[in-house]
Amino acid sequence: MKTFSAKTLQDAIILASKELNCSVVDLSYEIIQQPSNGFLGIGKKEAIISVVSKKTHPVIRNSKVSFDKQNMISDCLMIQQELSKMLSFMPYEIEKIKVDPYDKGTIRIYLDGKDTALLIGEKGYRYKALSYLLFNWINPIYGYNIRLEVAQFLSIQEEIIEQYLQSIESEILNSTEYRTKNLSGILGVIALKRLRELYPGRYICLKNEDNEQFVFISMMR
């Protein structure tokens, strides 16, 4: 067994799943220490867990096999059951868990409930970590990309970015180099993807400078 520590129990579990390269549902863990904020910062404790992976040889689907809609629906039901089990280990009230096909190679994961704001976290950082965790579980085994929708959070962020990109379209077209405003957290990732779709002939990357995250766009490749 291996020991992991983090600020919260959820963060410790996610850290363990990344380190052991397996899904949260395939972890067997024992809580050694519950996290505590202490009093005025005094006596603050991190969550500590002792973990072992129950899965040794995952069955990996051949990504070259063509997607069959019926198989995809069956996979979605299986993923939904496993996801429900995974979330049951976390201290959140999530009443709705739905997994269904989104497009040919992508599944949509929809979560909603009283604690969805906690799943998203400040500036979407926890959402980003959860999305990363789910992708690294689902894609190697099932071969799908994922679209994680937590109480419409992703759709709202995409709409914000779409409106912003429309407002700077003329500036981008008339510039050899352009830098967006500060787009923290998931906003920068969404903007990067969308700008690469809109301007395929340009060099576009996500940068971090002076504690700001922005997308840099250049005519040069």
Itemize the secondary structure elements and their pairings.
Layout: E1 2-6, H1 9-20, E2 27-33, E3 47-53, H2 69-88, E4 96-103, E5 106-112, H3 116-120, H4 125-142, E6 145-150, H5 153-167, H6 169-173, E7 177-179, H7 186-198, E8 203-209, E9 212-218
Parallel strand pairs: 5-6
Antiparallel strand pairs: 1-3, 2-3, 4-5, 7-9, 8-9
What's a quick, concise take on this entry?
With 221 residues, this protein is an alpha+beta fold.
| Overall helicity | 25-40%
- The count of helical stretches stands at 7
Could you list the spans in which at least 5 consecutive residues all have pLDDT below 50?
62-66
* Estimated radius of gyration: 20 Å
> Would you report the number of β strands?
9
Task: Note the overall shape.
Answer: globular
Averaged pLDDT, please?
A: 82
The largest β sheet comes out as:
3 strands, antiparallel
Strand order of the largest sheet: 1-3-2
Q: What is the strand content?
A: 25-35%
Q: Gap between N and C termini, in Å?
A: 48 Å
The helix/strand order is EHEEHEEHHEHHEHEE
- Helix/strand/pairing class, anyone? alpha+beta
Written overview of the protein:
By secondary structure, this protein is α+β, with helices and mostly antiparallel strands. About 40% of the residues lie in helices and about 25% in strands. A three-stranded antiparallel beta sheet has the order 1-3-2. It has a three-stranded mixed beta sheet with strand order 4-5-6. A hairpin with a 2-residue loop joins strand 4 (about 95-105) and strand 5. The radius of gyration is 20 Å and the shape is globular. The relative contact order is 0.10.
